[in-house]
Queue: 3 jobs
Job 1
Amino acid sequence: MSGEFVLRMQGISKRFPGVHALDQVQLNVRKGTVHALMGENGAGKSTLMKCLIGIYAPDSGTIEFNGQQVSIVNTHHALSMGISMIHQELSPIPHMTVAENIFLGREPLTWYGLVDMKELNRRTRELLGRLGIAVAPEKKMVELSIANTQLVEIAKAISYESSLIVMDEPTSAITEAEVANLHNIIRSLRNRGVSIIYITHKMDEVFNICDEVTVLRDGRYVGTSAIQSLSHDLLIQKMVGRELTDMFHKEETPVGEPILYVRNYSGKRFRDVTFQVRRGEIFGLAGLMGAGRTELLETIFGVHPRTSGELYLHGKKVEIRRPSDSIRHGFALLTEDRKLTGLYMNATVRDNISIANLLRYLRGPFVRFRKVAADCERMRQALRIKTPSLQQKVRNLSGGNQQKVLLSRWLLTEPEILILDEPTRGIDVGAKAEIYRLMVDLARSGKAIIMISSELPEVLGMCDRIMVMHEGDKVGELARGDATQERILQMATGLNLSTANA
Amino acid sequence: MTSTAPPTTPASSPKASPFSLVARHATRDNVRAVISQYGIFLIFGLMVIVASFLSPAFLTTTNIVNVIRQMSIIGLIVSGGIDLSSGSVVGAACVVAASLAQIPDRAFYPAIAGSPVVVAILAGCGVGALAGMINGLLVAKTGIPPFIATLGMYTAARGAAMLYTTGRPLSHLSDAYNVIGQGDFLSVPVPILILVVMAFATHILYSRTKFGKYIYAIGGNEQAARVSGINVGRYKILIYTYAGMLSGLAGLVVSSRIGSGQPGLGVGYELDGIAAAVIGGTSLSAGGIGTIPGTIVGALIIGVLNNTLDLVNVSAYWQQIIKGGIIVGAVVLDQRKNRGDR
């Protein structure tokens, strides 16, 4: 490890309307090291990296790269200086080939000026071969599995021959063997003097591959340490801060009779899934990206058609063809992407809360607004929604409060079974704790809750039972007492498929 | 290019299936792939056969040439994505070109009339390119949706064309100019030559050059294109400019064919163009999909349809209704196809 810094970011601040995303953050990366950037969702890791590669302009602060102060205006500029990034959330260009995606913007040309497809494919084959990735350069991206898509994104970032590579959750969708391969690649890059900023939620990987760790919390800099001076627990403590002990207000609530029985359900991206949920229970669904969890629950809710299987409520078989059927039967679904499928961003808090319930507020053709307002006010107080008034547009609320508005909407329908898909994604720690408290309250009042979450601490902290899925199959079920982070990860990556199925 | 994939793709299901089952799946997938890839060409072939049964006049040479003559005009407009202004740009470009190509003693603008035909051609294409560049600048620099930007140009370009001739047609064009739309070269009509040359050039441009790769990339995922270091704004301006230039060229052909530059020419062409692109497999819902060969076939389908319906005496009103139905049907099929992708 050399003492020389390849990157020094000092005093970086960035505000968005209503959020102080970064507040005087620093990040110093030594040459030829792997530097972990850790923090909970919403801690500011991705924002900081977007400031680095020129997607955002920081409001204040300085960036020094290779000893020179720079101001990076766009990603092209960052790439030309030798900074590349594996983007976690960016999907590739679906109808172009693997080779075209990797060398986009750097296509080799023939002497008469056309793109040299042969050379393009040859270079890609050579690159993928060197990295040990078994994907044909001529394949279109849409035809690849999610794991291979991620591997191609990794290959692309490496192909720039940069001196600094940012990897934002590069292993969220790939198997253990592929992770091991990636780590070997990272080691050889490091030996050649390349520096890597490694963002991940997986503790093992940090201790396995990283030299130093910088921790962010709620947009602030917490500290930087050498990995040898840290333990698992110490690192988690730094990330979560004081909230660690009282984050999950989990109470053992009495679990009642089974309400929902899903039998041999199959549909797009999942096969032959059977499970039961009881009254007063919080039932968790764990798995990697693309495991089919969202598709399963959306199919149960009636958003997509199923190809086979039966569904029983209170022991009676029911037929759900569309969401209105399931709502009538007492289901409620909080979608994964609030903005895309949940909230009307330009409508008021009141309208957003009442939209799924308008029928019951009708007198003749007219909506009884006074009754609507009273119910919304009740919800606002019960869920502690922070908004100046019910007439406020939802757009102007923070992520946590938006989530509460959505939750209010579904609670007004008085559901028996509440499906929550990533209920705390992108909201701050305080709001998270309140959502957890609400979940416990709801369970205690006798509702059944099904939760999808990609954050294992959340799953472990909140759920009474956890079902793990892998590429569309149910791998197994764990009781609260038996579940550990390692066990779930093993199952989710399909490692012990044979044993768990027994 | 699209060779069949090797059957070594790892099966996602860990359960081993009997080999015969796998093979049957594979062939069924192949058949589906062929249909979705070449379906539009099959439909075209079917239409030609049906049409020749319905009307014995269909397969005569004059009729085929007639179809392609019509199509050469639509085919040129097709290549620009959503561009509502292309019909109006045809009008604007053709009056400017015609004013230069008029016989001087009967000209509307005597000072410039009688210019060499090359000047008229360059001016027509230039007017189109200029209008397209303005579209591109609006889209790239202000961030307004293409629909709105080109809707503005749709109205403005038509107005400019009317203003330029005070609403009158410009006739008495030079013989040299009339060759563009009426002449033959080695007994092939010139418009067909123009269509073939431009279609080939544009096909190469879109599929084999950097420019082409980038516009597909921007259509497929603009943000990903940006972080790959592509200057998205510049390529947007370029593609609109190129589309405008093609509209200008279409204006030259159509005005030369009727021997008169009229500010009202090209009304409704933008919709014919969009329809041909959509029928030819260009996706309006997901960007980055669509090819020139597909578009040409789409244009030919509309042409054959028009022609057949004419020949079997279907009224013009019914023809419009049928065309509308076909366009919507094509988009429904397209959505069904793309939903399976991801």
Job 2
Amino acid sequence: MHRDPKKLDQLRVGRSELENHVIDEFVAGRLSRREFLRRGSIIGLSIPALGATVSACGGANSSPTSSSAPSGVPKAGAKLRIAGVVPTSAINPAQIYDEGGLTMIQQTGEYLSFNDPKTNILKPMLATGFKPNADASVWTYTLRPGVTFNDGRPMTADDVVYSFKQNTDPKVYVDAASVFNGVLTNDGVKKIDDQTVEFNLEAPNGNFSYLISSDNYNMIIVPNGTDYAKWQKTFVGTGPFKLTSYQANSGATFAPNPNWWGGNVLPAELQHIFYPTQQPQITALQGGDVDIVNLIVPAGAEGVLNNPDYTLLDTKSSQHRELSMRCDKPPWDNKLVRQAMALSLNRPEIAQALFKGYAQLGNDNPFAPFFRSTDTTVAQRVQDLTKAKQLLTQAGLPNGFTTDLYTEDYQEIKNYAQIIKQAAQAIGININLHIDTQATYYKDHWLSGIMSLVDYGHRGVPNVVLTATLAKGGAWNAAHFADSQYDALVKQYVAALDLSTQKQIAGQIETLLLDETPWICAYYFDSLSVCKKTIGGVVTTGMGQIFLSGAGPITA
Amino acid sequence: MAVYILKRLGLALITLWILSMIIFWVGQQLPGDPGRTILGNLATPAGVAALDHKLGVDRPIVTQYTDWVTKLAHGDMGSSYSFQAPIRPFITSALENSLKLALVAFFMCVPLAIVSGVIAALKSGEWVDRAISVFGLSLLGLPEFVSGVFLIMIFGIWLNVLPVGATPPAGADPFTQVFHLILPAIAIACVLFGYIMRMARAGTIEALNSDYTRTAVLKGLPTKTVVRRHVLRNALLPTITVVATQVGYLIGGLLVVEYLFHYNGIGSLTFKAAQAKDFPLLESTVLTIGVVYLVATLIADITYTLLNPRLRLGGDT
């Protein structure tokens, strides 16, 4: 690798101590190119600066890009038909939480930055850059100049401040509250000037840039004064498309936004068609009624998986299930019993059976394999029935016991619960399964069940799951886990800006959770979408978003 | 006749009132609450309670019911909880779609089934009769979701000659709309064919064996004239009644077909409303279907009365 010291020196001028530290780490070879791009983007190094640094170190001067699997150049002018699910409720950007809703708002709405699903690196969107202060308690964002909303109004700091204040309003329920709780309050968002916004956090947070990126799907920027409850009438936003029509029950049509800051939009029209479930979506794709199906699960999609007529868009994600065991109630208050339960599961077989292999193994902690801060040196827990039985004997339960497991009828969970029951039976634990509708489960059993199996969606960083599901008093702490050492480690992890520090603390958290095992996570499953092989340029995220400004029929 | 119709209308209104109470009560028994459905499973209880209060679903059930009925009496169906928009356009659009599908299925199935039934009766005991009867019975035993899947696989995916979805593109011309409805209409026709054909066959055989037919034959009338003037006119009376009563099913009872062929009819709208615990929408869709059934039954009764001189003139039946 040929270095250009003069160029590197020029690049260092005016950089903060933290930015120069990251550059030094890369130059010294302690950070890979990908890690450098990721860490650089987190602390606010611009994409040109990142590219120039890589170039000065002898690498190619290229920006991180993301694209769907098919090769070839997408052509402009196509009318793309996308099969999605029916949004659960009205399209209110501050309150939507479901797949249908979040897909709708990101067609016309945009975020301050975009988390590239292939690299997990933040790319500029409505902000051209951002910088934390020394302890990451204050983050300053510089907004992209010349951005207009699709109704012609220019986007300024007032709009950004308004959008964040609406999504941190303590007086009304907002979906992003789970992300901002303990991180950002309504008063913490300040306009510095027309192009600059400052976020004063409740506590230092090294991953804050992720928490307000596209990972936080509610956080699209809307014009100052927008009535969120009426947003679905206009779909006002800064994105590549503008609304042509929206029919709550059947679909939505979008046309290109000619004033989009990002340049030309390839599709001439997007037609999102709502389906109730996956089966008719797959049928529509096979029958030629749609070009893309956004988000599928392998079960029931056999006709398009490994089929040369279709391209599978496979994005690693942190979607997972948590099997919590009440740490405050016998017999699960004994960690040996919890460990025994965790050792009874054959994770590779489960991942294969439920997801046909489109999943990564979980190690009973919130650090998904694709998070950069995950300490992958911590040993993976594997099935060991002999040891599990020994642990039960040590815990004074040589003959096993009977317990209840509460869960929801949702996606693959019902089948997973059956697998858990069988696995537990092999070590003498007799589980009575209670599979309820989602409504009943969440209302009556989620946080109180002696064993509770629940679904969690994708997040770009582990912060929310680390705090909400495991910290003492966490809002979603179904295991009722309380450990002061864990809480202290999480506080350190959240505050850490530096990757090596994050990784080092992550290792300690992973080890601690392997020992304590308040909940079991057997797998993190991929986010899958599928399109015709003749379509390219489709970008999907682990969250389930689909970005189509660069999509179209491909030419080899 | 006018008194008869008024009496039937009065009964229909009472039926709808009872139906509205039943569906309101049943809706309350569904698990979960609207606030939770709208805000999501992870929403805070306080957030859910606030939204429930805003929607008014935390009020006593009687208050909610009377409020809803009062509004309905003034022609206001209210707003959908989940869509947060007036209900009427959803009902109108869904009903329009259901009517289109029902019409295509009706014209595809009914003439064919009646003709087949009459032919089977005229050839009673012969191989033609057996073939038609066995074919009709086989279709009758084939649920829509089975025939629908086969139709989709064969014509939609393997041969790729017909669209698998029944919903045409926005602004499609009538021909395209009908083109999209062919497969679901065939699936519906499969179910109805056997039923209507059997009715037509039985009625025709009964008419053929009647005294007036024998008299007509003995009078020396040509067979065609006997069949046209004496047999069919009497034989198809019960068939027409059956067909009229099936109109209710054709419009409001096609949830499976609508689901399978991705069609936004009144059936699938009802299903979505039930899933979302969207009470105002659920009640409005069920009542609409109820009205359709009652109107269809009323038309069937009136048609039967008009075609049957004994009933029309108040004679014994």
Job 3
Amino acid sequence: MPAKDLAKSPPEERLVNLVVALMATEQGITKDAILTSVSGYREQSEAGASKDALEKMFERDKEALRGLGVPIETLGERADPDDLREARYRVPTSEYVLPEDITFTSAELALLNLAGGVWSESSLSADARSGLRKILALGIPVDEPIIGYSPRISLRDPAFPALQQAIEQTKVVRFSYLKPGEDAPRARRVQPLALIEYEARWHVFGNDLDAGAERTFLLARIVGPVEITREAFPASLRADAGEKALAGLEEVAARNSALLEVNPGTEAALRLSRRATPAEQGIRLPFVDIHILADELASYGPEVRVVEPPELRAQVIARLEAALHVHGGAR
Amino acid sequence: MNARKPLVATDRAQIMLQLVPYLIGKGEVSITEAADEFGVTEAHMRAMVEKLTVIGLPGDGGYWQMANDLFDIDWDLLDERDIIVITNSVGLERAPKLTAREAAALLAGLQVARAIPGVGDSGIFTGLLAKLARGASSTPADVIVVPAPVDEVRSTVARALRQHVAVSFTYKAPNAEATTRTVDPVKVHMASGQWYLQGWCHLRESMRTFHLDRVSDLELTDIRIAHGEDPVPAWFAPGTAGDVKVRLQFSEEAASLLQDYLDRATRETTDGVTIATIRVADEFSLRRLATRLGGVGEIIEPESARRAAAEWAEAGLAQYR
């Protein structure tokens, strides 16, 4: 193999070579050994690259691989754990690979295939696909696919990826949040704990550090980017966060309900009756967010009338009046 | 959030780390199939496979690697028949654990699948949740999806799909009289909490899509389905395209409320005010949008849609006077 061709080998080759080398060792290899023997570093060593530059490259590569979920272990010098000159590095196979005892039945694979297809165009689509690929690489025969259903989750909120990353890394986030009825967005500092899609809208559940309490925020009301700060929070806060978030929303829905009169046979009747229960005067509809429900009810125009609560009634009337105001005259 | 962003070196390394177990799991696979699976071009897949053959264990004691220390492929099969077979591997044979994000994406997808009547039993789901949790390299973020409740209509449609029989129901399309339909069910699309049934309509004698919220008096028939294998036209969320051209004006803050409508819109923004041109199926659908927006958005034209919006708001308000 002529060294000339390899001197400029692409970084992905170096990264993969590094993984292979680190997995092949039980007792670990030192940085020096890596820089002089692993293909990708070695050629640059021999071409006269400075040790300093190579070490920096190794540090970056290590971080990149950890970011991909490759568990690189550092075995430090016993006498002085901070002295990394004699540190040895390795990737424990048992932590890197899918555990040997995890297998999937072909019925389970069929279900995972259906589950992996729900994300359509969103960023989670690539993640689902890549996860499926790893499972399919176990070489298990796939059952007949489940046909007849095409479930989709829509995920267009630009805030989602940063919030998900912050939850994984247990980092506090900062974002501007526009509460309906307020004139300007207000800055929030939040320990994000779970993301939850409820009534086809994405929410983030977490601890609002300024309010000193648990809060659920609608992603659609986050204005501008979500900043992930360096401030960490204990991972233990994440335990059961999803269940807590769901219980919280369900509790709100159980507490709030609207009494509505709907005109039979209309769009409003079709859309609302499925979610409501019959009441003496019309139907009773549980809701989570009064502003979102007011938006929906306003869209039905004369097809629905709000009996109570009064705040909802006022909000629907306000929307109808504003819509009449802007569309009332000729332009 | 575009899935087709350019790959950086780390992405390419990730693909190569997955490529080895995939190829070994497959035994032999065509360039086309592998490229498709990884979402790359055939040329890119071929280049990656060729690259694999210079990857391997470190050389021993200052010597270059021996052939056995490197991955190798069957070059004849690749050159002559575009087929990939790994003939020597030096590690990476077993698939890596899932990343937290991969596990989260599948776990959330399973919650959606679970809501479909008759798909998998709860034992399968519980087992899968545990396997995915154990197969992840770190704890996935809780991503919870709460599917819309399954009512009588939805579960009956699911039963018809399983039993391969037609359903009959009353259908109330917007701005049209109710009709009675008999339909061979082919596919159920579930999006944003809504279910849409795609199937062969005996009345119209062609494939049609029905919004299940507009369906009532649904019953199973004993008619075996005859058109279950017919090609299904590509599916679009209703109300996203049409012949009526509309111009809509709104402030930037209102844009997120309009997401569904703006997918296919052309937009122009000056001084924080956006004018979007969208196409809709009928101008009456816009009066609903206008009152929903409650003044933060305005229909500029056509004039008839403006007037319809004003009348719609006025009729709504009349109920409260």
